[in-house]
Amino acid sequence: EPEVTQTPSHQVTQMGQEVILRCVPISNHLYFYWYRQILGQKVEFLVSFYNNEISEKSEIFDDQFSVERPDGSNFTLKIRSTKLEDSAMYFCASSPDRAGKNIQYFGAGTRLSVL
Amino acid sequence: AQRVTQPEKLLSVFKGAPVELKCNYSYSGSPELFWYVQYSRQRLQLLLRHISRESIKGFTADLNKGETSFHLKKPFAQEEDSAMYYCALSGTGGFKTIFGAGTRLFVKA
To answer: What HEC string does chain B produce?
Structure first.
């Protein structure tokens, strides 16, 4: 069964450094998402991406965040200057249709630790 | 405001006992409701969605628009049901999913 793949599984970085979290969505899916989960808190929506542009973003997704689909398979989340509070589990998801119309398939997540 | 509330952080039941995981939501419009499950060391995965009206692994959930609830039920819990359960909501045609805080279900032998 096809899966969403995320790399790395764990990323450790120094405060102020840039990080890129990588995702390979399921190949025939058209909608892509990033979520994060701070330890002990709920899963929070960051951004959705469709047709090579952001379709919706949350207030968390400020100027330090960006997303990109650099080729036909990868979907990346870049955090430009990491802060301690960016430490969280980051989940990528993809779906063949909009979130409200179809289920999302989640990756296993990348744990980001900002020191 | 769009919100999903799961009042119980932890629910512990004995094997064979009935289970009900509560979920209430707040949404102006017609939402799509989902239950996602995360077993130990596994990824988040869909358990069921209200429009499917199906039973998955013995679990059912009924959308009650009057009470704005979408409680998850199973008549006889099994040990393998132990997991983290998240109630979630999307707007029809929307691009994001809003999750509740999750309920950890622990089924004791």
So the answer is: CCEEECCCCEEEEECCCCEEECCEEECCCCEEEEEEEECCCCCCEEEEEHHHCCCECCEEECCECCCCECCEEECCCCHHHCEEEEEEEEECCCCCCEECCCEEEEEEC
B95: closest CA among A69, A79, A97, A13?
A97
Structure tokens at B40: 């130990």
- C-beta atoms of A99 and B99 within 8 A: no
Give the closest of A33, A50, A100 to B93, CB-based: A100
Distance to chain B for A108, nearest Cα, Å: 5
Q: Which residue type is seen at B7?
A: P
Bond into A96 cis (ω within 30) = no
Q: How many CB pairs under 8 A join A and B?
A: 65
Instruction: Compute the nearest-CA separation of B84 from chain A (Å).
Output: 12
Query: How many percent of chain B have pLDDT more than 90?
Result: 71
Write the pLDDT tens digit of every residue in B65-97: 899 999 999 999 999 999 999 999 988 767 788
CB pair distance less than 8 Å for B32 and A100: yes
- Smallest CA–CA distance from A95 into chain B, residue: B95
pLDDT greater than 80 at residue A97: no
